[in-house]
Prior knowledge:
Elements: E1 4-10, E2 13-18, E3 21-26, E4 31-40, E5 44-51, E6 57-62, H1 63-69, H2 74-78, E7 83-86
Parallel strand pairs: 1-7
Antiparallel strand pairs: 1-2, 2-3, 4-5, 5-6
Amino acid sequence: MNNFATxxxxxxxxxxxxxxxxxxxxxxxxxxxxxxxxxxDNGYLVVMAKYKNIPEQEEYIDITHILNNLYxxxxxxxxxxxxxxxxxxx
Length: 90
């Protein structure tokens, strides 16, 4: 079992993956890629993101809220995640 999750994007969706679970949620079609994980705080992510035609900017993703909306036990799901990495980091 890994103790890290990954964050990636494809077209209009972001994917948050941990072990055998993938949580996908809609994002802007202008998002080119996530460039850096700034902070992981047990369900709350601060990331740097690159969008088409604008400079890189800081974004905030509340994974806990997304998991709760999907009827996951967010606390249980997130408890083993110690780090988040960008998948296929360039």
